[in-house]
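Example record

The entry below shows one chain as it appears in the dataset: sequence first, then structure tokens.
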Amino acid sequence: METFRLGDFTIDLIDNPEQTLEPSEKQKLTQESIPVARKAYRNENVTEYDIIIHAINVSTGVYMKDGGGKLIAFSTCVPETILGRTVIHLKATTLLPEYQGKGIYGIVTAVRILREAEKHDVKDLLIGTRTQSPLVYRFMCRLGLYPQMHDLTPDSIKPIAEAYAGVIRDKHSEFKSRNGLEFDRDTLVIRHAYGTVDEKGQESGFSMYGNRPPWLKGDDETNEFVRRHLTLSAGDAFLMIGPFQRDKCLDMLSRSLYKLNPSRLSLVERFRS
């Protein structure tokens, strides 16, 4: 485990927390993560099992605490092999609402990617995730992931994206629509990615954010792009994927650190070489 201090904040960077943490440490981290996830997603149905899957059973975990030692954010990922390529699958980034807009999301997102990338040959390394969030969509675009608003997805990426969408459905989703994988190679949209099944076996889609998606203030273009392509209430989501670009990750980390605490840019040097 590596620990970084950012003024009043602390970041713990943990490889394979399921294997490296003691049982008591895992239980403590799990219990601390539950209220963070519930508040972040405005969803009181987040369970201990959800946290174990998304915050503990991971390859790289980044956990940020405030000056009093309270967990305020976590960000995790795992590697997946897709058609012979390694994809860093970004599992979860969860942040307490009161800390949004302070650069923390960009910090924990960049750190998890940069650390996981150190474990792989970066020549053909890809980054990917699935999201309904306009905020996450914009962050991923800044890292060079597709789909982009003003650029076509390369044809070479499309078959990998479709196979990756299937892996997410099979390995990282509780809900699996009876219709199978509904994926559009051109838009990288997954239809009915999120949903539930009632006691009668009827399927219905849902938004991870309920009736309050995290629409972006002052960014009508991104909001409109998401609205045009996704029916959130039906469970639609973007499959986002693109090459790992260290310079873009470092730029995100630098900008986010400067926003949080301009005197703490030394963390960038940890990942620069």
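Notes for this example: The radius of gyration is 18 Å. The first strand starts at residue 2 and ends at 6.
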